[in-house]
Amino acid sequence: MTETNVLAEEIERLYELPAEEAAAGQPAVEAAVTLLDRGEVRVAEPGADGWVVNEWAKKAILLYFRLRRSEPVELGPFVYFDKVPLKHVDESLGVRVVPPAVARYGSYLAPGVVLMPGYVNIGAWVGPRTMVDTWATVGSCAQIGADVHLSGGVGIGGVLEPPQARPVIIEDGAFIGSRCIVVEGAVVGREAVLAPTVVLTASTPVIDVTGPEPVEYRGYVPPRSVVVPGTRPREFASGTFNLAAALIIGQRTESTDLKVSLNETLRSYGVGG
Questions:
Q1: Quick one: pLDDT at residue 54?
Q2: How many other CB atoms are there within 10 angstroms of residue 160's CB atom?
Q3: Dihedrals phi, psi of 64, to nearest 5 degrees
Q4: Is 66 exposed, middle or buried (0-12, 13-18, 19+ CB in 10 A)?
Q5: Boundaries of CATH 1.10.166.10 in the chain?
């Protein structure tokens, strides 16, 4: 049995105890969060049959909140009061963090990440060469792949509880347009493009309108899809009203490499500015 497996079993045991009894195991909880901070353990990871949630890692974060006490955190002229310290970033990590960006301890930033003034919460994993643009937020436990672009103001929701719940997943090479919202464990597939202001929840209809008949997904965008905001009519007692949906209007072509702009991709489908 590996050291990580032993640690996972200990976290599972502590999670079932009252806080006063679990406190004796705080070193194990701290060790688990340190592994998350280093990227040696992830809350969720890709498996042969899709994404697999490591529940024990989520439970370690919940124990971390339960056992730690709030204390002052000083940052230059600013003083915060919180249970979770800030992530320590230096040049050895190979990341760029632009003031006043904040990453909490227990989040992981891979080499090549650029974090503009935004926020990355505990348990999140941000892959190599990914851009987290200005005022974008990456919620607790969210898994952001390599070569992803989170445009300005994007909101990636956190999913910490229940422990078995899948976090938000943004797979490699995806481009998330400005002010998009992705929450409730939604999954954006590899190299997909979301136009500005698309909203994805676990129940949002994602409708492929490129064929003779619509094909509907829920909380999932297939790889290389180009997605724009849309609506779908629904009957209510007082009349017909349009509810939010996301429309797949095409696929990224082989000629559209990862460096192409969002506007150029959308323009090729007649919806760009």
A1: 97
A2: 19
A3: -60, -45
A4: middle
A5: 3-67
The dihedral region occupied by 23, where left means phi > 0, alpha psi between -120 and 50, and beta the remainder, is alpha
**Closest among 173, 193, 174, 187 to 251, alpha carbons compared:** 193
Fold of 3-67: 1.10.166
> Which one, of 123, 167, 141, 163, lies nearest residue 14 by Cα?
163
- Residue 235 makes CB contacts below 8 A (sequence gap 6+) with none
CA atoms in the 13 A half-sphere facing the CB of 40: 10
What amino acid is encoded at 16 in this protein? Answer: E
Class of the 84-267 domain?
A: mainly beta
DSSP state of 44: E
Helix axis angle, 3-15 to 26-38, nearest 10°: 130
Tell me, what's the pLDDT at 73? 85
Residues of the chain with CATH 2.160.10.10: 84-267
Average pLDDT taken over every residue of the chain: 93
Q: Take residue 177 and report the two structure tokens written for it.
A: 């347009």
pLDDT tier for residue 78 given thresholds of 50, 70 and 90: confident
